[in-house]
Design goal:
single chain, 7-stranded mixed beta sheet, 11 helices, globular
Amino acid sequence: MRILSLDGGGVRGYYSALLLARLEEARPGFLDGFDLFAGTSTGSIIALGLAMGLPAGEVADMYGRKAPRIFEVTWGERLRDVNGLIGPRYSASRFAAVLRNVFADRRLGDLERHVLVPAFRLDDGNEAGPRRWRPVLFHNLPGTAGRPRLLLRRVALYSSTVPAIFAPTEGYVDGGVFAANPALCAALVTLDERHTFARPGLEQLQLLSIGTGLAALHIGSEVREWGLAQWARPLLGMMLDGGVEMVDYQCRLLFQERYHRLNPRIGGDPIQLDNVDSFERLAQAAAAADLQGTLAWLDRGTNSAK
């Protein structure tokens, strides 16, 4: 069983999609060999698009066309929320409209390919016990735990509403809160006995994980004097990056040669989640990325499956 996992990362999803497009150009039809697409946040949009049958290049083009609309701010909005200080920075309803244009009214159950999308629910509404927040994995795997009636555009929005960047959608926020790298979630969900599809066991999984680009980030000695106001800005990035790298480490130990991670470094200043002016730079970095190791891994997996 082959799994393709896609990290969260805002506009840097464009980079992931471009890397996939290059792989698809070098190995036409390679995406047809995957049994499960998993994606968090921006990765959920890519995963759902691929599960619909869209070519990776078309998904990348979609980012170029749609992202500026998602991260648009009118002067009225900027004045009303003091540029994101007392309210979400961007409009979730505008984001929802873009996703409606992409996915229309397709539902998880309409997809011929399996998908898995993490999101975080702020209130589980439990009336039998204490109400609490909790992680959620949306998917269309057969069995009792799937959600085939959910609209793709709602699933993508649930997984992509980064706190403070967008308002929560129907009580859900970004799946990156707990699974910015969904690779391990995707692998372990195949062991869930509630799903009626054939469970291969971890030793028969092959897992390709695609990141949104490594950036040179660090905090110097000035951290000793920081308080809440200074920590607030870098803290989310630290948690996301730390979680991503720990899942990479765990997958390497669990799957060894059956696991491969593609996440080339992007030079220069770090690219923020909403930096739509970075697309040319992301395109150049994707075009220059070395894919030989990934192509060799794909070829080995294809040959071993024959």
